[in-house]
Amino acid sequence: MISIFLILGSLVSTLLAGASTEYQAINCRKHSAVLTDFGGVGDGKTSNTKAFKAAIAELSQYASDGGAQLIVPPGKWLTGSFNLSSHFTLFLHKDAVLLASQDEAEWPAFPPLPSYGVGRDEHAGRFSSLIFGTHLTDVVVTGNNGTIDGQGAVWWDKFHQKKLKLTRPYLIEFLYSDQVQISNLTLINSPSWNVHPTYCSNVLIQWLTILAPVDSPNTDGINPDSSSNVRIEDSFVVSGDDCIAVKSGWDEYGIKFGRPTQHLVIRRFTCISPDSATIALGSEMSGGIQDVRAEDITALSTQSGVRIKTAVGRGAYVKDIFVRRMTLKTMKYAFWMTGSYGSHPDTGYDPKALPEIKGISYKDIVAENVTYSARLEGIENDPFTGICISNVNISLTLKPKELQWNCTDIQGVSSKVTPQPCAALPEKSIECPFPEDRLPIEDVKLQTCSASSYASHADEGYDAKALLEITRINYKDEVDENITIQGKLGLGEENPSIGICIYNITMSLAKKHNEPAWNCTDISAVSSNATPKSCSAMAKKSMECPFPEDKLPIEKGSKLVLPLARS
Length: 567
Ligand SMILES: *[C@@H]1O[C@H](CO)[C@@H](O)[C@H](O)[C@H]1NC(C)=O
Ligand SMILES: *[C@@H]1O[C@H](CO)[C@@H](O)[C@H](O)[C@H]1NC(C)=O
Ligand SMILES: *[C@@H]1O[C@H](CO)[C@@H](O)[C@H](O)[C@H]1NC(C)=O
Ligand SMILES: *[C@@H]1O[C@H](CO)[C@@H](O)[C@H](O)[C@H]1NC(C)=O
Ligand SMILES: *[C@@H]1O[C@H](CO)[C@@H](O)[C@H](O)[C@H]1NC(C)=O
Ligand SMILES: *[C@@H]1O[C@H](CO)[C@@H](O)[C@H](O)[C@H]1NC(C)=O
Ligand SMILES: *[C@@H]1O[C@H](CO)[C@@H](O)[C@H](O)[C@H]1NC(C)=O
Ligand SMILES: *[C@@H]1O[C@H](CO)[C@@H](O)[C@H](O)[C@H]1NC(C)=O
Ligand SMILES: *[C@@H]1O[C@H](CO)[C@@H](O)[C@H](O)[C@H]1NC(C)=O
Known about the structure:
Belongs to the glycosyl hydrolase 28 family. The chain is mainly β. It has helices at 10-19, 49-59, 153-160, 251-257; strands at residues 3-8, 20-25, 31-34, 43-47, 68-72, 75-79, 82-83, 88-92, 96-100, 109-110, 126-127, 131-134, 137-143, 146-149, 172-175, 178-188, 195-198, 201-211, 228-238, 244-246, 261-272, 277-281, 289-302, 304-309, 317-338, 356-377, 384-396, 405-408, 410-418, 447-452, 471-483, 485-490, 497-509, 518-520, 523-531, 538-540. The protein folds into two domains: 26-343 and 352-438, Pectate Lyase C-like (3 Solenoid); 468-554, no CATH class. One 2-acetamido-2-deoxy-beta-D-glucopyranose binds next to strand 2.
């Protein structure tokens, strides 16, 4: 036994220090709370939707007072969709798992996105995303690699069996928000797309691990959609659809909404997706895609590298796309552009709305075990222009396609590319461009914040003068054996505990015991018949400590009258 008497103010802060984690974020928060403060139950069975809503409703009040963070401690936290607020951080402890509810009642229905016109699975609309927010400023979803499990299998079945009434939910989605960070999380088995920043600006996505079965439907990893100034880095996606899909709305709805995705940086990114692209541009690109910079990209067993997907009716543009330093292994296509993707929201699209695809630059690429070097298919009377490919070495699989470079309706140049490109990409002694400047999102400074899984103070507003009173504590008639620390008594000099009484206590010490046996700070006490001798802060008095002589009503056997039992 460690300690018999323990009255100790510093104990709480010792625990706090041990459980605290530091993390990097665009902003730290002044106020902090733990999900369990709001009735959260981490048993994997109890719904925490209400606890999340209550927590965020409460903490959103601090938006203009230094912001707040909500910590999800270790446990399995079943939940439906909930909304975040501004100047807010959701932090998932490494052993915390958010389990997405499979009960449709836990997912509010939303109308389709304005830039899409219709829901993608079902035209009627869509289910709210698991973690959602709209019109927010400064919102962070992070952790030390905590997990969000979409439990997607039931949704995938409903999709395959055409039993969906609305479009499947995504895991994390923000609309019309500025200063968004999503980092240090593991996302698994999303019902559909994983991370979907839409109509957002200044978005930082880092250190995500996103995993879904490679045959799961539409489990795209990260889909920046009609968003500006986005940085995606140091992430790994295994998925049943595109690892990253850059989007900006669908046909006539996207053209009308007119919001591009632009100033996008993707770097140090790894993808495995046997039936889809490492980075897709489109197919929904009707608000335009411009200024994408991708570098240090790795793909394994993936269908294609960077793929442009578009169609007649999409309108808008994909331009100023720069890719360098890709390493590709076991690919169907190293390069793929598709001008006939089709897939329209409805028949209302404008057949004269031709997309403009130009200024596409690829360089410094090594691809191994490739079936088809390039399939570059523009649109008749709407060629894809300004394509530049330089310093590319492609080695082929044992059974390669006979026509390695299949180019239609495209124009451009190439340099130092093997195998030799098509005639539409004549050899020029050039190096394809990559921008030299930096985007503002690359210079965002992160701060070191801290998160603790134990509730301490609800916020910084607690009264430091609100001291607790510890008094009239009586211990008597105890025999204790093999004790390491006999007594550790004290709350701090500001707050002495008084009126402690110790009588007839016999302790035998462990072989290795603390010295002094009694460690008394800031107490005032009396003792009698204590072995070993108590501390000097305890005046020796020959008295017995009191124990009440009277009986409480509950001990008297009186009949209990319950108010509700009365008829
Ligand atoms: C989240 O916000 C949206 C848009 O304001 C609202 O329609 C929805 O009901 C909110 N969801 C929850 C779970 O509060
Ligand atoms: C986030 O991930 C990076 C890379 O693994 C790591 O260096 C950093 O410490 C992580 N942050 C937290 C809070 O775990
Ligand atoms: C995060 O967890 C995932 C899944 O367990 C793991 O694959 C990944 O390596 C972890 N990342 C870090 C930085 O620890
Ligand atoms: C492609 O191979 C050539 C010749 O071996 C080499 O000089 C060049 O650096 C290689 N390119 C890349 C991107 O590795
Ligand atoms: C090469 O690619 C084929 C599929 O085209 C695959 O079956 C084979 O395992 C790959 N070989 C290596 C060495 O990765
Ligand atoms: C070349 O590409 C066009 C357009 O994608 C396709 O229709 C045609 O079948 C391809 N030809 C070969 C030989 O692969
Ligand atoms: C002291 O405490 C022991 C253990 O509870 C008890 O047996 C003994 O009677 C007590 N002695 C006195 C003098 O109260
Ligand atoms: C006494 O406590 C120590 C740990 O402090 C333990 O290792 C030892 O087995 C105990 N001895 C007896 C006799 O219970
Ligand atoms: C006595 O307790 C105080 C307060 O907990 C602690 O700071 C101190 O290190 C202890 N002294 C010994 C000798 O254990």
